[in-house]
Amino acid sequence: MPEINFPFSNKLITWYLQNKRELPWRQTKDPYRIWLSEIILQQTRVAQGLPYYETFVATYPNVYELAKAPEEDVLKLWQGLGYYSRARNLRFTANFVANELNGVFPNTYESLKKLKGVGDYTASAIASICYQEPAAVVDGNVYRVLSRVFGVATPINSTAGIKEFKLLAQTLLDEKQPGVFNQAIMEFGARYCVPQNPACEGCIFSENCMAFTSRTVSELPVKLKKLKVKKRYFNYIVLLSIDHKTRLNQRLGKGIWQNLYEFPLVETTNEVSEGDLKREPAYRNLSEEIKINSIVKYNDTPIVHKLSHQHLITTFWIVETETLHGTGIAISEIEKFPVPVLIANFLNMFTFQ
């Protein structure tokens, strides 16, 4: 572990108290609201997550209300945030706390970590902010600040790196005000020690920052290369019947977008022409089920939708038919269904006749 020879915590907390943003979850110690904010802010910037937090609190003001909510309603409210397993875990944990723990959240780091969807970071945040337990948070912002200030080049996504940074954060933690310290270091990383082009000249740590003095700011933190991104080719069949209906299917089982809705999907091994599409078994099955009057490609250039380990190269096909034989939904009802952002973006662009 690097040597600590300056008052890191004091400098950081002083900066935070003078510069912090006034955010709604900083006005409460309610573990339900802190938990909700931390789950929403995983993989999500504050600017994007704030309106979702406010909507969730307004719709489900306590853990009992969230526990009672149908999963589809929670997914619909979550729509656009991505990483939908967070929403499913959110509802599962709300149900567990409401029904198994009488609505009372666990009050220690170790017990919080046993909740579904709550890992080291979230448990540390709730325990420190709500219960003043000295548990240091480590997220992307914290990795960045600590690796640069203390010149730590251990890869942050390696087993050794995870242990080293957790120990360093725990050593630096102000045990008298752990919640304030944790919020301060996250705030500093999010607003000041940013990934690209941080304003190092005016930084409160510029005199002590190892990366600044050695001119290695752009090289830290170190991260091992990700797995190869997989390309998948999606062809969505947007069915339109003469009685103004379409069809949405629910994605079941494991994998991306579990329990969300989408148009009938034909997945291929590469980009396909109309002729190639018509030869695909999934399309042939569809054409045997309903009478297809016409098919038109909506987007000439495929839409590339990027997920963490997958790129979905997507084409929408507009298919007109006489009837959907009772399996259709009214076009006016589509907005009630939770859909992936890829589908939501299409719905915002396309005008149904």
Automatic annotation (TrEMBL):
Q: Which InterPro entries match?
A: A/G_AdeGlyc_MutY, DNA_glycosylase, Endouclease-III_FeS-bd_BS, HhH-GPD_domain, HhH_base_excis_C, HhH_motif, MIG/MutY, MutY_C
UniProt catalytic activity: Hydrolyzes free adenine bases from 7,8-dihydro-8-oxoguanine:adenine mismatched double-stranded DNA, leaving an apurinic site
Which residue range or ranges hold the HhH-GPD domain? 40-191
CDD domains attached here?
A: ENDO3c, NUDIX_DNA_Glycosylase_C-MutY
Q: Does the keyword Transferase apply?
A: no
Q: What's in the keyword line of the UniProt record?
A: 4Fe-4S, DNA damage, DNA repair, Glycosidase, Hydrolase, Iron, Iron-sulfur, Metal-binding
Query: What does the note under cofactor report?
Result: Binds 1 [4Fe-4S] cluster.
Which E.C. number(s) belong to this protein?
Answer: 3.2.2.31
Q: Name one GO biological process term.
A: mismatch repair
Q: Out of the domains of life, which is the source?
A: Bacteria
The GO molecular function terms of this record are: 4 iron, 4 sulfur cluster binding; 8-oxo-7,8-dihydroguanine DNA N-glycosylase activity; adenine/guanine mispair binding; metal ion binding; oxidized purine DNA binding; purine-specific mismatch base pair DNA N-glycosylase activity
> What cofactor(s) does the depicted protein rely on?
[4Fe-4S] cluster
Q: What does this protein do?
A: Adenine glycosylase active on G-A mispairs. MutY also corrects error-prone DNA synthesis past GO lesions which are due to the oxidatively damaged form of guanine: 7,8-dihydro-8-oxoguanine (8-oxo-dGTP).
Q: Which family does it belong to?
A: Belongs to the Nth/MutY family.
The protein's name: Adenine DNA glycosylase
Q: In which organism is this protein found?
A: Rasiella rasia
- Name the gene that codes for it: mutY
